[in-house]
Design the sequence.
């Protein structure tokens, strides 16, 4: 229901803005976020509002460690927050927006819709609980079916918003009798096929192998001199720290050897480079140690160098990168388990680290490369989503 909005006000975005605000030297444009406190508060308020309206099951709150996703078993403090704190805050934002003509992003319609939705949610939850409902999932409180029906009604009449009674009656009878809505004017299957052909055309063989060998030699040299690598609180290092935390969790869950588990992580979350992870932490995140951050930074430079010469959608590129990284990671001293000489421990740890790292790097690069495909799909005139689905 609120998927796009929840993504926009995600923990990752809020944590990234906090990081840029508290670390002005992390990026050339980070100083522009020094006064982002009000923006962060607005995003946190909206995030909580969307979370309360997006309660979909009884287990999400436990898995995501977010108490705002708990089902409503009673009229708890969240309802009081909605009708008092949130509406008061939105009213303050609206008044500040109206006083500043350039910042007037809260129209009357938007304000009234937010207030109406908020009050309606509070009243619906309280009413359902008062008549004996065991719990209330607010994601079920939506009007998508009604919007879908009226959207089909308008589109059947040529997107005419001024429909008379006879036209509306005819459309309703047509939908009920035939059970169909308007056909999509765009051949979605053909468009997907063209996109697939474009991707298949990009899956060529590896280009100039001399360049790849040169990059691998550079990787080997940088790994030997990794102790001289510097780790500063930059945007790139902060992102690598977040990725490294996920790798540490995978190692902790997949490897039984305790000494192997502690090779990559640390309990010290005070270094500035780990501030982004600290902003995201709700009590279950892992923090990569300094040596692991240096290693990830070296691997990042190598993979980015490969991406400059090889399309990330090339077939078997992921397997190629993993094999190269594993070959060099096995030789890194601090990845060797100190309590055993068993080579299997080192190999398992290196394979897992390489697999998680390459998958994340390729995903990020593919998002960037596929941007033009997404743009081309958006440029094609497609019918509204609600015109393709019946809410009956």
Sequence:
């Amino acid at each position: 229901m609120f998927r796009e909005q929840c993504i926009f006000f995600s923990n990752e975005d809020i944590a990234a803005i906090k990081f840029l605000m508290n670390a002005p030297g992390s990026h050339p444009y980070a100083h522009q976020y020094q006064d982002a406190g009000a923006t962060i508060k607005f995003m946190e308020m909206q995030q909580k509002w969307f979370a309360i309206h997006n309660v979909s099951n009884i287990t999400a709150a436990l898995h995501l460690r977010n108490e705002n996703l708990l089902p409503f078993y009673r009229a708890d403090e969240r309802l009081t927050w909605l009708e008092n704190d949130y509406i008061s805050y939105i009213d303050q934002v609206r008044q500040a927006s109206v006083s500043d003509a350039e910042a007037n992003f809260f129209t009357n319609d938007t304000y009234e819709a937010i207030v109406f939705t908020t009050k309606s949610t509070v009243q619906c939850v309280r009413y359902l609980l008062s008549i004996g409902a065991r719990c209330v999932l607010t994601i079920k409180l939506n009007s998508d079916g009604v919007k879908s029906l009226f959207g089909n009604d308008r589109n059947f009449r040529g997107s005419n918003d001024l429909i008379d009674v006879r036209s509306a009656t005819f459309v309703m009878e047509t939908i009920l009798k035939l059970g169909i809505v308007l056909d999509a004017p765009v051949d979605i299957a053909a468009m997907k096929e063209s996109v697939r052909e474009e991707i298949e055309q990009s899956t060529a063989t590896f280009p100039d192998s001399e360049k790849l060998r040169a990059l691998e030699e550079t990787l080997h040299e940088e790994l030997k001199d990794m102790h001289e690598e510097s780790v500063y609180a930059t945007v790139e290092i902060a992102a690598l720290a977040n990725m490294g935390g996920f790798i540490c969790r995978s190692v902790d869950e997949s490897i039984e050897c305790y000494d192997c588990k502690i090779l990559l992580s640390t309990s010290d979350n005070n270094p500035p480079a780990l501030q982004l992870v600290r902003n995201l932490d709700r009590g279950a995140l892992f923090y990569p140690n300094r040596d692991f951050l240096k290693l990830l930074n070296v691997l990042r430079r190598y993979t980015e160098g490969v991406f400059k010469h090889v399309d990330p959608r090339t077939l078997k590129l992921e397997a190629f990168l993993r094999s190269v990284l594993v070959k060099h990671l096995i030789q890194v001293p601090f990845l060797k388990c100190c309590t055993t000489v068993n080579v299997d421990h080192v190999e398992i740890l290196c394979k897992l680290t390489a697999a998680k790292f390459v998958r994340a790097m390729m995903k990020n690069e593919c998002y960037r490369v596929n941007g033009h495909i997404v743009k081309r799909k958006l440029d094609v005139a497609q019918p509204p989503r609600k015109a393709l689905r019946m809410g009956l």
Summary: Confidence is low (pLDDT under 50) at residues 182-188, 380-392. The CA atoms of residues 318 and 358 lie 7 Å apart.
